Amino acid sequence: MLVLCVQFCFGLSYSTFFLLPKFLARQFHAHADAIGAVAAVALLAGVFSSPWTGAWLDRGSRRPFISYGALVNGLCGGAFALVHTLSWPIFALRAVHGISYALVFNATLTLSADLASPKKLGQAIGLCGAAGMVANAIAPALAESVADSRGWAVVFLFAGGAALIAGLLSLGIREPKYATALEPALTSVAATEASLSAFALLRDPRRLGAFVCSAANGAAFGVMFTFTQPYALSLGATKVSSFFVGYTLIALSVRLFLGSLADTWGRRRVALTALVMYGLVAAMTSLLRPNLLFVAGAGLGLAHGLLYPAINALAAEGVPRARRGAVMSYFFGCFNAGFALWVLGLGVLAKSQGYPVVFLATGLLAWSAIAFLPKKAPG
User: Fold this and answer.
1) DSSP alpha helices (H): ranges in the chain?
2) Residue 20 scores a pLDDT above 70
3) Read out DSSP for 78-123?
4) Which residue has the higher pLDDT, 280 or 194?
5) Residue 205: CB partners within 8 Å, gap ≥ 6?
6) Pick from 141, 171, 199, 203: most CB atoms within 10 A?
7) How confident is residue 362, by pLDDT bands cut at 50, 70 and 90?
């Protein structure tokens, strides 16, 4: 429960920055390519730090990395209140943001996997994500209102404060002894993997498909979260928080009421169904209207709520604790790499060809990822 509370508070900070595209568009009149570049910097920083964050997490306790990451993130979040131009400080702050995001999210997800039984792995990952999802609706709606009445500086100070609270709460986490029944006896496969380098797990053909799907998932998620806002604003919308409300309500409902679906019905089967949904939602967003923001968010929530835990569990199942942090870091790194590179490239495309083409291309990408779903569960 304490881990979930930490995830929620940190999620308030993280989710506040979902409105960064609106901030850039309204305050600095930034175009799609600049918005995509700012979004990409944070994610690429997280990607490049993945080998180190994974190695750090596997050295022992996960809790210190939650505390340190939340502290750094909180200070950077508050520093955005001092930014008044679209220049290098934004990119520098976003880079540090990306590394701290990776530390906190990888540590909390890895700790959740440590605490779960193998048969409940997908459900545990889903519940950890659900704690952050609650914040996905609350933070943008609150931040948008505060930005209109008090200014963006107050919004960023709120974001920084939420991350610092998460760091304080994390100091109370007490991790169990992993030599006990929480860590089942290693199978022959797991024993072999324990002796492998962390990078060897990334190249393991049994997991490679899950990592590729994670990258496609990140690309589709990134386009929906980055470009739906400026697209809606260009169509005459004045508020965009209904998109996040729709996303959160449905994604959270999926995690709470269908959280065990991937573990019972089959992780690959659920992932396949969700990828079909993802492609459909992205493609249909090309026909967006301001009054359909809630619907677009709800569709994304259904697809993402099912997909992310399913493919995360496919990547993580059968991995011993000694390598679990690395696998989680690489999985999140692939998600961020897909997000960053696709958003960066499609930002340029959106500037020249318009937003509808971006969403259609993203739908095709999500559908193409179906070919990479693991035929056989890892391990």
Assistant:
1) 2-16, 20-27, 32-48, 50-57, 63-79, 88-115, 121-150, 152-170, 188-194, 198-203, 205-234, 241-257, 261-265, 267-284, 293-316, 321-353, 355-368
2) yes
3) HHGGG--SSSHHHHHHHHHHHHHHHHHHHHHHHHHHHHS-GGGHHH
4) 280
5) none
6) 141
7) very high
Integer angstrom CA distances of residue 349 from 266, 308, 322, 355: 37, 27, 42, 8
Tracing tokens 């600049």 back to the chain, one arrives at: 34
Are 183 and 117 in contact by the 8 Å Cβ rule? The answer is no
Residue with tokens 């008044």: 84
Confidence of residue 185 (pLDDT cuts 50, 70, 90): very low
The model's pLDDT over 102-159, given as tens digits with 9 standing for 90+, comes to 888 878 877 777 776 667 766 676 677 777 777 877 888 888 889 888 899 999 999 9
The span from the CA of 310 to the CA of 262, in Å, is: 6
Measured N-to-C along each axis, helices 32-48 and 20-27 cross at an angle, to the nearest 10 degrees, of 140
Contact 197, 2 (CB under 8 A): no
Q: Indicate the fold that domain 2-372 takes in CATH.
A: Growth Hormone; Chain: A; (1.20.1250)
